[in-house]
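Protein data sheet
==================
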Amino acid sequence: MSIHSFLEYISLEKNSSVHTQTAYQGDLEDFKRFLLKQDLPNKDSSLEEVSYGEIRSWIVFLIQKGNSTRTVNRKISVLRSYYKFLMRVGSIERSPLKEHKALKMATKVQLPFSQEEVARVLNSDFFPKNYNGVLQKTILSLFYYTGIRRSELIGLKYEDINLSKDLIKVLGKQNKERLIPLLPEIKVQIKTLLSLQNQSSALRSQGLFFQTENGRKLTEAYVYKTVNDYFGRVSTKTKKSPHVLRHSFATHLLDQGADLNSIKDLLGHSSIAATQHYTHSSMAKIQEVYKKTHPREQNK
């Protein structure tokens, strides 16, 4: 059973994105190349006939090459999905990864920007008084006011923005749509950018809301650099990225008393477990609320 068949399966049955398919293909082909370079009994066979020992050899190789535990676990997860597919279509009876346990990872708590840091950027005069300045401020504002992902922001279309109903429609992972409310402040910023765009017919050509002054689609690098550059002026945190702004959105909502299920829906998470990640950075706030509201504490 070819890798191509597996990629078709995750595309049609799992509705996986092109990006995911490309990543899966790369990991599977990397493993095949590793096997061909090793002096192993099955080096000329297909991936269907490998043993767990051969997979373990690849894991050791990846670690020795400096890959992080997270990266190794991701690659093995791809292999696991591939072998589940082979079992489903009857090519193999048992997965060589049946007994495998993921490598333990050190827990990393990614620090969000503080509310003060966000305010210092969005209320500042850092932004140039031209199209690029308005574009960049709108990018940062939308991240913080809605918590959308970088890919979702880049793909946002004019038709997805409904200012009369104070909503934007976002196409998330696995093509799942969700609606996110717009507060008055971000509506003003969106209208400012729209006003500038209306002065140029070129900016309406692709139907994308976020475009460069020349009418080109934004790149991931441009969006990342925008966040990193502006927040680099006010924050000493090591990581300054679109995801940190998304993290800040969720954390600050949690700090203000929003429930996890509401935050989950706003972020487009498929399960509450993914959203619970943000409780780590808000634990001090949670403890404060707990002490103020627990009945036993109140009776003291």
Observations:
- The mean pLDDT is 86.
- The beta strands are 161-162, 167-171, 177-181.
- The domain at 115-290 is CATH 1.10.443.10 (hpI Integrase; Chain A).
- Residues 82 and 269 are 24 Å apart (CA to CA).
